[in-house]
Amino acid sequence: MNVKERFMSKALKEALKGDPFAYPNPLVGCVIVKKGKIIGKGYHGFFGGPHAEPSAVKNCSESAKGADFYITMEPCSSINKKTPPCTDLLLQIKPKKVFIGSLDPNPAHNGKGVEILRKAGIKTETGILSKECENINSSFFKNMKENMPYVILKFAQSLNGKIADNKGNSRWISCEESRFFSQKLRAGCDCIIAGAKTIIKDNPLLTVRYPKAVKQPSVCIIDGCGKIPLNASVFKADRKVFIVVKKGFSFKGKIPKNARILEIPLKGDFLNNKILLKKLYKEGIRRILVEGGGETHGQFVFSGLFDEIYAFISPIIIGQKNSPSSVVWPDNYKIKKGLGIELKLKEEKNIGKDKLLIFGK
Predict the structure, then answer these.
(1) CA–CA distance, 135 with 102 (Å, rounded to integer)
(2) 352 and 244 within one domain
(3) 271-280 long-range contacts, Cβ below 8 Å, gap at least 24?
(4) Residue 105: per-residue pLDDT
(5) What was the pLDDT predicted at 294?
(6) Domain holding 290: CATH number?
(7) Are residues 242 and 200 in the same domain?
(8) Residue 328's pLDDT is what?
């Protein structure tokens, strides 16, 4: 790792401090260096709050004029937002050089910040640890490039892949530390997807109970034939609840005020979840957490409509024959190659007594 990469890695560590409260903005970190020494560090801490560059300048131990700036994402240049453009701040400070990790993937802003700095005579270099800088904002990049939500599947399972016993009891498979981590995941998403069976059996609130969380995510219930009770706990929180039914189905009874019906056509035995995701994106949903159960997970995995899977593995074996599994699909659904769908392990970590495995496609 060379000097530029070393300082950019420091900026990456700063950026991660903004998770999950910077969302829906990207995670951005900034490190200011003068004469080979870090004089200031900062990050974008919460949506609507100061960006990484002004935070780093504020934390400087001396003047930032003539210093080198290491920023994980291209400085913003737009004036139509909650905070002033960071390019203006940099033009005012006149740094010696600006090193940037990734360009802004937003087509309206891509490359403009770099152009402004270079036109002002500020030496600007891009692509420092670009892959790492993009990876911390994978959901933001997907939103900008594909106009689709980023989809995370999350489940806690026994060592042998079960999410409950044969009577549906699942409290608690995962440890307390894993459940706290799951709350952080929820806080970083703006919609939670669950199947009708989960709502009927568990009657969950599906709310965020993570410290300092200021907004509850919307909920999307996949309920093709309208089986969920309309007085379920999920409707109690002050947030939007989407009820997804097959096209042409109509509910009997009074729909809760915060509920909205989405009619989706069938694709084989499942609702067409690709159409669902497109509709949710138009509703402003950018990052989704799918919390099952197993059949709902199976729909998204089999159709490839997921970006990451967070699997919490607990050191417990649930042996009853009819215990539900974490991911299932109908027996007549054929895999094109091999025994199953192969995943790529991205990260693993120990959380309490559990093991968290994070997979990508």
Answers:
(1) 10
(2) yes
(3) 271/222, 271/224, 271/244, 271/246, 271/299, 273/222, 273/299, 273/300, 273/303, 273/305, 274/303, 274/305, 276/220, 276/222, 276/244, 277/148, 277/149, 277/151, 277/305, 278/148, 280/149, 280/191, 280/220, 280/242
(4) 95
(5) 94
(6) 3.40.430.10
(7) yes
(8) 93
**Residue 99's domain spans which residues?**
3-142
The catalytic residue positions are: 53
pTM of the complete model: 0.90
Number of domains in the chain: 2
Q: How far is CA 152 from CA 37, 48, 77, 228, 290, in A?
A: 39, 25, 31, 24, 6
Same domain, 220 and 113: no
Q: Are residues 107 and 167 in the same domain?
A: no
Residue that is last in its domain, among 95, 121, 142: 142
Q: What is the pLDDT of residue 19?
A: 92
**One-character DSSP codes across 157-196:** E-TTSBSS-TT---TTSS-HHHHHHHHHHHHT-SEEEEEH
Mean pLDDT by 10 residues, the chain (361 residues): 96 96 94 97 94 97 97 89 86 97 93 96 97 96 96 97 91 94 93 94 90 85 90 93 91 87 89 96 96 93 96 96 93 86 96 98 92
Asked if 209 and 137 sit in the same domain, the reply is no
| 162 and 308 together in one domain | yes
